[in-house]
Amino acid sequence: MLQAGLRLEQAPPISVPFRFFLTAPVFIVLASAVLLWRGPEVFDSRLSPAALAATHLFTLGVMAMVMMGAVMQMLPVLAGSPIPLPRATAAIAHAALSLGTPLLAAGFLVGAPWLLRTGATALAIGFAVFIAAVATSLWRSRVRTDTSRAILLAAVSLLATVVFGFALASGLGWGIALPNLSIRYLHPAWGMLGWLGLLAGGVAYQVVPMFQMTPPYPGPMTRYFAAAVFALLALWSGALWMTDGSGGPLADACALALAAGYAAFGVVTLALERRRRRRQPDALLHFWRAAMSSLIAANLLWAYRLVSPTHAPEALDVLIGMLALVGFAGSIINGMLYKIAPFLVWFHLRSRAGAGRPVPNMRQILGEADQRLQARVHFAALVLLAGAAAWPSVLVYPAAFALGASGMLLGANLIRTLLVFRQSARANDPMPAAARAC
Amino acid sequence: MGTINDYMSRHHKDCDGVFARAEQMAGESDWAGLQREGGLFLREMERHIGMEEDVLFPAFVDRTGMADGPVETMRMEHEQMRGMFEQMRAAIEAKDAEQYLGVGETLLVLLQQHNMKEENILYPMLDESLGEEARSLLAQIEPAAA
Hints:
The structure holds two protein chains of two kinds. By secondary structure, chain A is mainly alpha-helical. Chain A has helices at 15-38, 41-44, 49-78, 86-110, 113-140, 146-174, 183-212, 219-242, 249-274, 283-307, 314-353, 362-365, 368-390, 392-428. Chain A has one domain: Cytochrome c oxidase-like, subunit I domain (Cytochrome C Oxidase, Chain A, Up-down Bundle). The two termini of chain B are 15 Å apart. The chains are: A mainly alpha, B mainly alpha.
């Protein structure tokens, strides 16, 4: 079926993605501040109040923040279908996430139910708007690729994460008893293995071969990986639900299969990158390698945790969390921002400048040296955080400083790109800058 | 003979390969190599865009009457790319590796998104709307590839 009037540019205004990107470094710094403030307590248990606060500052304020902005930017290209009402959707989702995240984190830290209630409600509204917008965009799209299918399953997983998360917050905030204890496991599982893993995987099918010029991912992997992960997650959830969270052989088998699947995805990606035709190394390549190494390590540790549960200390759970969140998600997000942000600045400058007028290229917008410096600090923070899982009393403070420094440098780099945009837009714009909404 | 989508997508990948070689030459300040590979990349890109604008798009517009919409967007992006080809050509002449790499990187990000839209949306539409005519158009294009 042809659709008359199908348009392929449909890039949302630059302010739509950029507000998400610029907010994320603030939350990296806030997460590091919680580490500094509460110190080793954060590493005592993944369910300690300080750990829950730091984790949600990172998963909501950094990961969801950037992933939402990037999805809104990329859907027109990946699915040929824009987000409906991009300005309003971005405004609501961004405001809800920016307000709800610190409220929820503060609620964990001080144990105040009203903060948890307000934060959880704001977050639920923001995610509902975002998920509805993505669903509409995918519904209208005529593109059915492995990537668009993976994004759809990621969005459904996000919905599950939010519903389970809201149920948990209702327990803490309103005193409503959990209908089933398995929800404590299902919330992080759908967030990490569903939303994060499927979105990163779906985007990787396109981005890794495109930008590193590797061979494509094996056909069966791009075709079935997302569906298989989703089905395993659903089956695992059912097995956990039936046993009220205590699990059993079926649940363990599903979890092991998920761990094997994600570890295999990491290995395949690293193998593809070794065969890349583009030999010029850039920051993105190093970020992807760190991300895939963390993914493999996290899943091997998780598998070990599953087969020998009694010997595994709490520190192992914290380490798995650090590798999955900061190592895998944090590295991919950071690396992708260094492609997306300078390109968007170039793209919007180019569209405004008109033919013939020069605009700065991506390397002039954000230099390689600035990216490399921040990348090194990020990798140092990752190593220190992983070490702090084992020796919290020694390493938590250096880890917190490194994470904070990484967030500040990332913020500085993103502000740098925005300043280039402002300056060049003014130089190229015959109309007063204030007359145009940026 | 395959579809327009097969043929044109394969040519995208061929151009990618030349792009990577030229970029490596620029990174190593191998000016003779950059002149050769960079020149080849720019010629192949011009030829690819030419096939689309001179043969495929007019046939598509003839058949569907959709002169604006996707075809118009693709033409606009081609125009943006042509400006960058000029800059890359000038950088090769001036032996300015930093400028070549900077413009090349930017072109690559634009180009890959452009290719994705063509491969996922426009080429399938071409194959679908042109039907049998697609074969004769490919025959027109393919000798040029030899």
